[in-house]
Amino acid sequence: MPLRRTKIVATLGPASSSPERIAALIDAGMNVARLNFSHGTADEHRERARLVRAVAADKGCHVALLGDLQGPKIRIARFANGKIQLEVGDHFRLSTSHPLNAGNQDVVGIDYPELVNDCRTGDELLLDDGRVVMRVNSVEADEVRCTVTVAGPLSNHKGINRRGGGLSAAALTDKDRADIVLAAELQMEYVAVSFPRDAADMDLARSLLTEAQSQAWLVAKIERAEAVADDEALDGLIRASDGVMVARGDLGVEIGDAELVAIQKHIISRARKQNKLVITATQMMESMISSPLPTRAEVSDVANAALDYTDAVMLSAESAAGQFPVEAVQAMARICLGAEKHPTSQRSGHRLYQSFERCDETIALAAMYAGNHFPGVTAIISLTDSGFTPLIMSRIRSHLPIFALSPNPQTLGRVALFRGVQAMAFNPANIPAEQLYQQAIGTLLKHGHVKPDDWVILTKGDSYNASGGTNSLKLLQVGEQLV
Ligand code: G6P
Ligand code: MG
Description:
- The protein is an alpha/beta fold.
- The chain has three domains: 7-71 and 170-339, TIM Barrel (Alpha-Beta Barrel); 83-162, PK beta-barrel domain-like (M1 Pyruvate Kinase, Domain 3), CATH 2.40.33; 359-477, Pyruvate kinase, C-terminal domain (Pyruvate Kinase, Chain: A, domain 1, 3-Layer(aba) Sandwich), CATH 3.40.1380.
- Helices cover 34% and strands 23% of the residues.
- The strands form four sheets. Strands 1-2-3-12-13-14-15-16 form an eight-stranded parallel barrel, surrounded by eight helices.
- It is elongated, with a radius of gyration of 24 Å.
- The protein binds 6-O-phosphono-alpha-D-glucopyranose and magnesium ion.
- Keywords: ATP-binding, Glycolysis, Kinase, Magnesium, Metal-binding, Nucleotide-binding, Pyruvate, Transferase.
- Belongs to the pyruvate kinase family.
- GO terms for molecular function: ATP binding; kinase activity; magnesium ion binding; potassium ion binding; pyruvate kinase activity.
- InterPro entries: Pyr_Knase, Pyrv/PenolPyrv_kinase-like_dom, Pyrv_kinase-like_dom_sf, Pyrv_Knase-like_insert_dom_sf, Pyrv_Knase_AS, Pyrv_Knase_brl, Pyrv_Knase_C, Pyrv_Knase_C_sf.
């Protein structure tokens, strides 16, 4: 059975927090556990993080933790009776002065005073991910007056988006800042920023992480219309991040579902071109919240993201609160494996006509070119400090597994998200130079990833712990006398 290249991010929640469930999720193929800071207490996240680390260590595998910040989602306040039903043609007001817990059939409070400055007559507001839609008739000093155009129930704390984007709350709230400190405490490998507007939002998140002494890599969730308005905006966000998430829930609401598929493909390809990671998220297996099997449309959605060479596909409510979290991960794993058999998953024209900028990058890309074109090769080994060398390798389409060998636990967790990359603990520090290759290959042999006579490509630098130092590529035949 080939190793799966496309990684699986599974959100943990009430349905997936026992040690047994977490163990079953890891066995099913979870590579990254997502802790959603929009729900749950800090202690619940601490406990889940502890369990993931303990179970993964027990199994000898590497699972990354991704903390997803809640962000500045603009929400309505509460209704006196918890919920109302709106019909087409109803007049409804969103008020910045109405008491926050006393919404009724005509009006609900909102604790985002800027709403009146952000809205214009004629705007379309989407509540609860578009389940209820209203058109703005007029904007007063303390309220926005609307007419309902899509009917539905509306309950406490539902989110508000504007068609076309432009509701402009700052990206990092006080809660997000506290959660960044929590992510640092839990040594999370990844932190995702919700609703970033531009590079400055990501820069701020990065400086807060650094201040909290976190080494986490930053993921920008692409979910505002402004973020995909043009390539300059998108590239700016990608450049300021280590990876991006195609956050299809809010993005789909803001730009409309018809635009979403093309934009998803575009985001995946732009991120990869810039040597960044990309996660495809939201509703991928939605029906599996209550069904043990995905629909054919869901199968196709996951397979298409895998064919487009996303690093990872993601589960939200399916694994956090659904009835079949383990089955959902299993289904994703088998669908990805199926898609990866397709020839377009294995051939690459990446950067064929471009020059490279750095020595380590040149070695990494040369290794993939050699591996893809020399049929005896069955594995690529990259000795890595930060994960940079295997990151560059994994931007290239290939059928070959890339083994990232590192002594650094953060790096081993980090590479769990990279497409086609397998983490292996390996410390070159005390290995005599003449035994290094043999021992590195021995690690793969031990796990059955290579067999005698296979060819293996190995990259490394001259020192054993210098990030950025990769400068050599070696072709080795397994079982030879290696020196
Ligand atoms: C390890 C290897 C070095 C190599 C480095 C590359 O430390 O022992 O020989 O130069 O990784 O690290 P990077 O973070 O750039 O992938
Ligand atoms: Mg979102």
